[in-house]
User: Fold these one by one.
Assistant:
Number 1:
Amino acid sequence: MVAKKPRVVIVGAGVAGLAAAQRLCGAGGDRFDVTVVEAGARAGGRVLTSEFAGHRVEMGATWVQGIVGSPVYALARDAGALDPDPEDDGGLVPYERMDGFPDRVLTVAEGGAVVDADLVAKPVEDLYRGRSRRAVGHADLGQLPAAPAYQRRNTRRRWRRVEPRRAQSRTDTSADDLGDLDLAAEREYRDFPGDHVTIPGGYYRVVDRLVAALPPGTVRLGLQLRRLEWGRTPVRLHFAYGDAPALEADHVIVTVSLGVLKTSCLGNGKQDAAGAIAFDPPLPQFKREAVARLGFGVVDKLFMEVEAMEGDEGEPPVDFPFLHMAFRAHHVSEAPWWMRGTESICPVHGGSRVALAWFAGREAEHLESLPDDEVVRGVHATLDAFLPSSRWRVKRVKRSAWATDPLFLGSYSYVAVGSSGEDLDTMAEPLPRAEDDGGGHDERPLRVLFGGEATHRAHYSTTHAAYLSGVREADRLLQYYSR
Ligand SMILES: Cc1cc2nc3c(=O)[nH]c(=O)nc-3n(C[C@H](O)[C@H](O)[C@H](O)COP(=O)(O)OP(=O)(O)OC[C@H]3O[C@@H](n4cnc5c(N)ncnc54)[C@H](O)[C@@H]3O)c2cc1C
């Protein structure tokens, strides 16, 4: 008689879910019966590569945050995505920051006065450049001088750019209000050492690499988990659409975003959102409290195809500048409030006619609610305030909408005031806890395991956190069955 294989269902085909599946199917050999159920019509989750105006654009994950030892960098390299052949790639060579960051930016005050960035920003830049150089490649980042954690993280991530700024820290951390960041806990955050790079062939190649390593049919798209009965083994998974039969599993690895978990556990009026899961029985209090305390913010990207109109002063400008905007506290232009938290509009690479602005927090959420023509009007009012004589115009826009998307309900996690790194560990804790079942520690049945970026204490908010969390949960099962 052939022994029955343990059935493992992984919920979510983002980087975490795919990494868990790859590990179970790889290191586990043929020992597990693995299925990945994904509510959406594609794998990748918050990795979403798209095209716009002849460019490859990343709507979600953009950077590999430190290349030394990064599993995501290794996947991109092994997939040939660091040096893609344009012939095989639909001719799409241009990609975000393919030329790194320009040495000089055009810093302009609202109203159009060009500011001498050397006078204002250079000393600060030098200070942080030095500090971050020490951070990059440093074996024990905890020994660095104690700067506010969000700044350190900021400098590690963006040290080639000019001085650390509030808007950048908001997009780096996803916190709407920087006062909501627990700085002590954020100090535990780590990037990998080395450069931060974008992926020429597209971040999706990392996802494709993971999927390709799985047996055909492992990933099942369009299956949205609606109810998870986890009170006894086997665990039963019920799906949203009537004709999808329930599945039974010995173990379920949940990798949905913290935004989806918040809605699933805490309500907040969005329980009917497509991704929300009814846990039956409800998740225990310790888990719900960690879900509630941790922060999950919104970051969006707005891509704009720009063209220069001929002005009164003759020839239009050649290149769109790397524009750094210094808004005044007292508004002196028609730039709308939702543009005022954004400090730069820059070409995705030198000479490109595709410009990019990042948004965070309430401005990002508002941006998601606007029709395209209103977005274009708001950008025009802003460009008129900063480049009054250049007459750049936006032909069309493309933007992300991570807060509105019911399968994500936000962008990435942060440690909010009132939470701590321990909450990230709690997020990762499998269920039931031994005492819930009345069994001894060794009897813990590992019915529901948790992966995803918001379950990694040191690397949360990144793709490598997602990857490492998936591997961690797969290893938990491998270890369980090797006892
Ligand atoms: C704008 C933006 C920029 C970013 N930039 C970077 C960056 O530069 N560098 C970096 O490292 N990281 C970046 N990130 C973060 C990174 O993308 C994420 O941390 C990572 O991709 C998360 O992967 P995950 O597998 O944990 O979750 P997800 O990618 O969210 O995967 C979870 C999956 O679960 C699915 N799902 C949801 N509900 C259900 C359900 N009920 N049933 C079945 N399936 C369900 C979802 O559709 C999704 O596919 C960025 C993210 C955003 C949004």
Number 2:
Amino acid sequence: MTCGSGMHSHNIYYRKQKNLMNTVETRIKHLACTHSHDMHACALLIGSPFLFDLIGQQAEKAVLKRGSFQRLCLSDVSNSSSIQAIDDISVSLVGPKLHTFTLEELREATHNFSWSNLLGEGGFGPVYKGFVDDKLRPGLKAQSVAVKRLDLDGKQGHKEWLAEIIFLGQLRHPHLVKLIGYCYEEEHRLLVYEFMARGSLENQLFRRYSAALPWSTRMKIALGAAKGLAFLHETDKPVIYRDFKTSNILLDSDYTAKLSDFGLAKDGPEGEETHITTRVMGTQGYAAPEYIMTGHLTTKSDVYSYGVVLLELLTGKRVVDKTRPSREQNLVEWARPLLRDQRKLFRVIDPRVEGQFPIKGAQKVAALAYKCLSHNPNPRATMSDVVKILESLQNFDDVFKGPFVYVAVSETSDGDIVKGKEG
Ligand SMILES: Nc1ncnc2c1ncn2[C@@H]1O[C@H](COP(=O)(O)OP(=O)(O)OP(=O)(O)O)[C@@H](O)[C@H]1O
Ligand SMILES: [Mg+2]
């Protein structure tokens, strides 16, 4: 079934399932009342109009099976025996808050996917800036959007697209990027997100000519991203994000951090289980050692990746960089031993913050990164611990007033930064 040509049969299907929808909606209203005391339930319920606005038999089964309100899991969909069933569900996850766009509409919104609208490109495919408003869909807020288009010759496909819709379509939080809608038309798969004005943390932190992020901004980003991850780990049914890295942290105009890219996300272990076992996937340098060795995935694997990003924020250095001296190419191996030694901390902290950071605060952040990067998963902090610690450090004011250091950032051809000193 497609967005365009399949609309007629889709409407018939819709009418057939209307009674089911009414029952489900009543149930949601009831649950919204009975669970309103629970913050997590509330957060999930924000997504409920489209969560249970499911019009397939699978949705009915999912509700009856659990007998109570719960998020639809990826396995509810991907365990379906036929590809068609997956297709039906993805088409059925439509509701007032998740819009289905046609390819033509998204073409219009992005100036025909023009090169000048290109924001970047990742494993899924190119991402374009676009604009939508209520002329496109009644009730749709006039806003800039980011449109991600599946590269039909690329490594990712329907599965990653569907995971994004299943997770981001249901989970709403100030530190998760908002999915506005999608397109499913023949072989085309697109995703439409809120536009994040400052792009990815990767670009802000490492792009050659971007201004250096001050310490307080780095801490704001670290806290926002930690809150997003903590939310995922603490929902009724935990989600393991599995791809935490600087390019997946997007920044709003005021540097509010939001997690994007749920293509690799997994539902966490259930009941007595302590982990799930899965094929090792992710990005080099960010994956936890035990996950690489055994394929055992837990929320603590995400905590390790979080530690890597925190270290990148502290140092301004990429996790792996073959242009650095061989001893320093692997950031974690080089920096982790230095994090606990207060005298050596100055060697670690990004020279581009020009000494403008609170010493005690920096020591605490370094100790936190050290803990998150523990080789053994057990001593790693939980994400809610991380949030608590970072919240307490947001307004540290014992800023180091060192000698004035003039840092003239120019770059050699191999990407090394050359610094000049004055004063
Ligand atoms: N919602 C958005 N708002 C603004 N820019 C975005 C948005 N989503 C993505 N981008 C831009 O598009 C780029 C590519 O994003 P994408 O997530 O597809 O790839 P990636 O994260 O770089 O790589 P990977 O495939 O490993 O995740 C990002 O780096 C960012 O600059
Ligand atoms: Mg990404």
